[in-house]
Fold this sequence. Notes:
Elements: E1 9-12, H1 14-18, H2 27-38, E2 42-46, H3 51-57, E3 65-69, E4 74-77, E5 80-84, H4 89-102, E6 108-114, E7 117-120, H5 125-134, E8 138-140, E9 151-158, H6 162-172, E10 177-183, E11 186-191, H7 196-207, E12 214-218, H8 224-229, E13 232-236, H9 241-247, E14 250-251, H10 258-273
Parallel strand pairs: 1-2, 1-12, 2-3, 7-8, 12-13, 13-14
Antiparallel strand pairs: 3-4, 4-5, 6-7, 6-9, 9-11, 10-11
Helix pairs in contact: 2-10
Amino acid sequence: MTGLARIRLIASDLDHTLLTPAGDLAGRTVHLIRRLGENGVQFAAISGRDTASMRALFKPLLKNVWLASHNGAVISKNGAVLAAHPLTDMQVAGLLTLLATHFSAQPVLPVLCREDGIFVVAPGPASEARLRKFFTQLKVVPRLDPFLTDVMKVTCWTNGPAAPVAAQLRQILPAGLQLAVGEQDAFSITSAQSDKGQALARLALRLGVPRGATLALGDQGNDLTMLKWAGTGVVMADGDPALIAAIGQVAPPNVKHGADQVLAAVLREKMEGTR
């Protein structure tokens, strides 16, 4: 990668990209983000996680970073929500009916993601443990009907590979919704007005950063819009091969702290440019 001195805004996915393989935010990463800010580079975490989970992860940096949660449906900083694009009640109700009637052969577990909690019915012990890894506000409830309002995202966990189910659902997905695969066994549905790429574009506009001065890091299909919108899009070497083929620019793998290596390269060029 060259020309990194021009970068003024970095956006990064979290799981399997910025975070360690164990799902933690490393101390070195915190240090790099702080140093980048001191050298004129703003940082945005753009993730499928909910805002509460992201705030907990970035507790040492809440004044320094922008958070775009629920795949970009909510943008916030330091506790203040700056933009939100929820699904309508009718969209959520219709989607739940669609999932129940069209995918009975391969059950899909819908999870309603709101700012006041993450709601799921009867997830089973293994699924519940996996969900709690990502969502700190998970609430197991008897029915989803009371929670259809202010849903930012519907995450769907599958009993097996998510890609085939997602491909089928795309063919019958109602207008106004969009689908992105973010894990091997999960995909998410948001409003057509919110995805990671649109979140990055909104942040760049708000901050007055030209598209060419943005850099994005990701690893899975739900990062595609963000990586394509950014002036420089970079995929982790151990990310989705299809995403690597679509974007082309590759960072070292997540297991070798590839995101930190990219952040350090930007910081190095920034500091050299000020000498």
